[in-house]
Amino acid sequence: MDGPIGDLLVGATRVLLYVGFVLLAGTLSIWVLVWPEGHYDRRQRLLVDDGMVLLVIATVLGPVVTVLLSDEPVGESLSGEAGAAALLRLAVIAVIAAWLPELVDGPTVGWRRIAVGAIVVELSLTMVIASDAITGQLVALKVVATLGHLLAAAAWLGGLVILAVIIIPGQHLDQLDELLPSFSKVAFVSVVTLAVTGAVHAVAQAGGLTVLVSSPFGVVLFLKVAIFSGMLVLGNHGRRYVIEFVLHRARPRGGVAAGAVSTLAVVMGAELATAGALLLTTAVLVAVAPLG
What is the distance between the alpha carbons of residues 42 and 58, in angstroms, rounded to a whole number? Predict the structure, then answer.
C-alpha cells in the first residue's frame, strides 16, 4: 500500500503517538514541575488514562502500518531499534498503569517526584530510540537534543492542556495565581529548549547548515521555527499580562477576575492551535528528514 493513503496512515499514526505522549508525559511532567497535587483532580487523571490508551494504540499500529506498506513479515517489523522501542514503551506504560493507584495516594513530592520524573525520561527515551537520532553521524549529540526536545514539549504542551482542563469547566480557578507564574517559567524555558534542540538536531541530521537550508527538510524546519517564535512571543506576553495586570490588579475579592480568565483562555487557545500546527510539521519533518 503506497502513495497518499500510505503516507496518510504513517502521518496519522505519528500524530496519534505524539498526542498520546503529550497527554501522558506532559501531565506527569506538570505534576513534577508545577502542580504536585494535580492528580487529585479527576480530569487530570483522565488525561493520563487517555494518554496511555492513545500511546498503546499508536505503538501497536506502528508495526501494523509497516507490514501493510512494505509487505514484510510481522517479526521483521518488530526487530531492530523500532521494535525494541515499541516493546519498551508498552512495558513502561504497563508500569505506569500498575503504579498509578499508589501514585495518586499522595502529592508528587519526595520519592514520588523522582520516580515520576524517571518514568517521564524513560518514556521519552522510547521515542528517541525509535527516531532518526540513533542513525547516521553525531549520534550522541542527536540523542541528547531529541531527548531534551521531547521533555520540553511534554512540559509545555502538557501544561497547556491542564490549564485548559482547569479553565473550561471553571474549576480550581482560585489556584491560577499560584499555577500561572510557575507554568509561565516552565513554558518559557521549554519553548527556548525546543527551538535550540530542534535546530541542533536538524543541523546534525542534515550534515551541515548548507545542506539543511537547501533541502525540503530545512524548509519545513524553518516553518516550524517561525511558528515557535510567534508562539513564544504570544504566549509569554499573554501570560505576563494575565499574571501582572488582570489577576493582580483587577481581581475581585474572593475570586479571579472574569477578564483574566477570558484573556488567558484566548492566549491558551492560540497556543494550543500553534501546538497542533507544530505536531503536523513535526510529522512532516520526520517524513522528509535526510538520512544523516
Answer: 24
Given a cut of 50, whether residue 60 has pLDDT beyond it is yes
Residue ranges of domains in the chain: 1-130, 132-292
| pLDDT at 291 > cutoff 50 | no
Residue type, position 92, single letter = V
pLDDT in tens, 18-31: 899 999 999 999 99
Question: Do 122 and 70 contact (CB within 8 A), yes or no?
Answer: no
The DSSP result for the chain, as a single string, is --SHHHHHHHHHHHHHHHHHHIIIIIHHHHHHHT-TTGGGSHHHHHHHHHHHHHHHHHHHHHHHHHHHHH---HHHHTSHHHHHHHHHHHHHHHHHHHHHHHHTTS-S-THHHHHHHHHHHHHHHHHHHTSGGGSSS-HHHHHHHHHHHHHHHHHHHHHHHHHHHHHTTT-SGGGHHHHHHHHHHHHHHHHHHHHHHHHHHHHHHHTSHHHHHTSHHHHHHHHHHHHHHHHHHHHHHHHHHIIIIIIHHSPPTTS--HHHHHHHHHHHHHHHHHHHHHHHHHHHHHHH----
Angle between helices 80-103 and 42-70 (to 10 degrees): 160
108: left (phi over 0), alpha (psi -120 to 50) or beta: beta
207 vs 51 pLDDT, higher one: 51
Cβ contact 61:19 at 8 Å = no
Surface-to-core class of residue 71, CB atoms within 10 Å of its CB (0-12 exposed, 13-18 middle, 19+ buried): exposed
